[in-house]
Write a structure and sequence with these properties.
single chain; 253 residues; alpha/beta; Rossmann fold; 2 domains; three-stranded mixed β-sheet
Length: 253
């Protein structure tokens, strides 16, 4: 009786990646773009308190937290899934903290430690990571793929101005070579973050501003004045009440 010997050869990175979540892994070292600091007056000191990875993934119509705070993408190959992870010394919360620091510095804040904030009564901000994910879609009839990075950070603070920033969201897409996944992920994140900082600045400047009053259209204004006049002509309101009502209609109160 002959015994057949079967040699199973695993991909090298599958053997080396001890932290594989579901299948093979790609590891990425992200580089964050520099941002010009505000040349205007200083807005004072600020501390980044907590950064919370709040991301969820949807599988089979069920939402669940991401499997690791190092994962930034996941996709199915022909034979098994891939997980895209940050290098072991990094995680999404650490990266987002650096993004938040750069964002606030760009509008004029000086970032201090939490202990300094507690001692000096400096405002603090919590940052919730709602989205930090790269989607990959193959480009038909091509050896390339479209890499799309979505980032959405939610800023929460007891400070009225800082708390009004809310969610800052940006999306960016770059085409990349599927055989060079690591650089494609890194370049897409870098490119998108260059747009995130200006978006943050715009959201900060608009935070807390009152929404402009919606003025009634010409036809609606005429109709309201007509109705007020009809009430006066019918004796339902006095001349004084009619004058007050017209004033409210014209001022859109």
């Amino acid at each position: 009786m002959l015994l057949a010997t079967v040699l199973v050869v695993l991909p090298l990175h599958s053997v080396l990646a001890a932290d594989t979540l579901e299948g093979r892994t790609i590891t990425v070292k992200l580089k964050l773009p520099e941002v010009m600091q505000s040349s205007g007056d200083s807005l004072g000191e600020l501390a980044i308190s907590r950064v919370v990875d709040n991301r969820v993934v949807t599988q089979n119509s069920r939402s669940k937290p991401v499997a690791s705070n190092r994962i930034i993408a996941g996709w199915e190959s022909k034979y098994r899934p891939y997980d895209v992870l940050l290098k072991k010394q990094d995680d999404v919360e650490d990266v987002v903290r650096q993004i938040a620091i750069k964002s606030f510095e760009s509008v004029g804040y000086k970032i201090v430690s939490q202990s300094t904030a507690q001692t000096n009564g400096v405002p603090t901000v919590d940052v919730y990571v709602d989205e930090f994910w790269v989607d990959v879609e193959k480009i038909p009839s091509s050896g390339r793929s479209a890499f799309t990075f979505n980032i959405a950070l939610r800023f929460v603070s007891e400070d009225e101005k800082l708390g009004a920033i809310g969610v800052v969201r940006t999306t960016g897409t770059l085409n990349g070579n599927r055989s060079k996944h690591a650089s494609s992920y890194r370049n897409t994140v870098f490119y998108t973050l260059k747009s995130f900082y200006p978006e943050f600045g715009s959201r900060y400047r608009d935070a807390g501003k009152a929404e402009p009053a919606v003025q009634p259209s010409g036809s609606a204004l005429v109709q309201d004045l007509t109705n007020a006049k009809a009430l006066f002509d019918a004796g339902a309101i006095t001349a004084e009440e009619y004058t007050l009502l017209k004033s409210k209609i014209l001022s859109n109160e």
